[in-house]
Amino acid sequence: MKVFSGSSNRPLAEAITRYIGIDLGRSTIKPFPDGETFVKVEENVRGEDVFVVQSTSPPTNHHLMEMFIMIDALRRASAARITAVLPFYGYARQDRKDQPRVPITAKLVANLLVAAGANRILTMDLHAQQIQGFFDIPVDHLYAAPVMYEYLKGKGLRNLVVVSPDVGGLKMAYAYSQVLAGGLAIVAKRRKSATEVESMALIGEIRGKDVLLVDDLTETAGTLVTAADLLKRKGAKRILACVSHAILNRVGIERLRKSAIDELVTTDTVLRPAIRGVKITALSVAGLLGEAIKRIHSNSSVTSLFEFKGGRTS
């Protein structure tokens, strides 16, 4: 088994290999003067079971192209099996035609990964579960929930209500409410644009209670911040947000600084610089991904990675 890393999140790849107990594969990735990407695998991979770790975080297109080139290099170097490890799967929000003459880019990315030479996909907390069906190769879909739960149970949350900031995240919110023995509420929202959200109504009772907002992804933080402001007005005592992939651009950081959210709990699926003025707790998913890689390599079951506290994450 060999694990290689693209340039999007090398610290996570290094943490994964430390967990497995192997060295990170040696490779050279550098740009040509015209912006093209050059990749060279610096060790023998003939007949090897190879894993390539690359999150498609911003700059998304650059990191995707880098992933395709790495997979192609490994395929042409006669690797026996290539597993694309995408802790964060970009373009996942473009998973359907919701208006005329638009692409289904999540499916296009799936096609390109297979065309490049990927034999298997390992990913985490897809924005839409049906994206697994876009692939005609095996997909192992992990959840960050077990890692989140271990942290949250030590927070001493009492009289807890888990809130979904939109109807689409209700299933995830329900799973968290079950394992944390909390109530459940929903914020009904209307989206104005890609960066603006208008929350409409709260379904559920949260007055005087600790609230946990759960979502899979935030970038501009519009959904989370608007929902948190509504919850605060409705009498929430303390508001925590739990998000698997916090990409957070400049707009999102500014919104969080001014928001009613007391703490943002997220993972290291994407690499972020240190952010001042916002309490962000980043939990590592290296152990979860490392364990999945070990089991995929040995053809063992990964099902038990979905289970915790006698329940399931989905």
Structure description:
- The structure is a single chain.
- With 314 residues, the protein is of the alpha/beta class.
- The chain folds into two domains: 2-143 and 286-306, Rossmann fold, CATH 3.40.50; 145-283, Rossmann fold (3-Layer(aba) Sandwich).
- It has helices spanning 10-20, 60-76, 105-116, 145-152, 170-179, 222-233, 250-257, 286-297; strands at residues 2-5, 27-31, 37-41, 49-53, 81-86, 120-124, 139-142, 160-164, 183-191, 197-203, 210-218, 238-246, 263-267, 280-283, 307-308, 311-312.
- The strands form four sheets. It has a seven-stranded mixed β-sheet, sandwiched between helices.
- The two termini are 30 Å apart.
- The mean pLDDT is 89.
Topology of helices and strands:
Blueprint: E1 2-5, H1 10-20, E2 27-31, E3 37-41, E4 49-53, H2 60-76, E5 81-86, H3 105-116, E6 120-124, E7 139-142, H4 145-152, E8 160-164, H5 170-179, E9 183-191, E10 197-203, E11 210-218, H6 222-233, E12 238-246, H7 250-257, E13 263-267, E14 280-283, H8 286-297, E15 307-308, E16 311-312
Parallel strand pairs: 1-4, 4-5, 5-6, 6-7, 8-9, 8-11, 11-12, 12-13, 13-14
Antiparallel strand pairs: 2-3, 9-10, 15-16
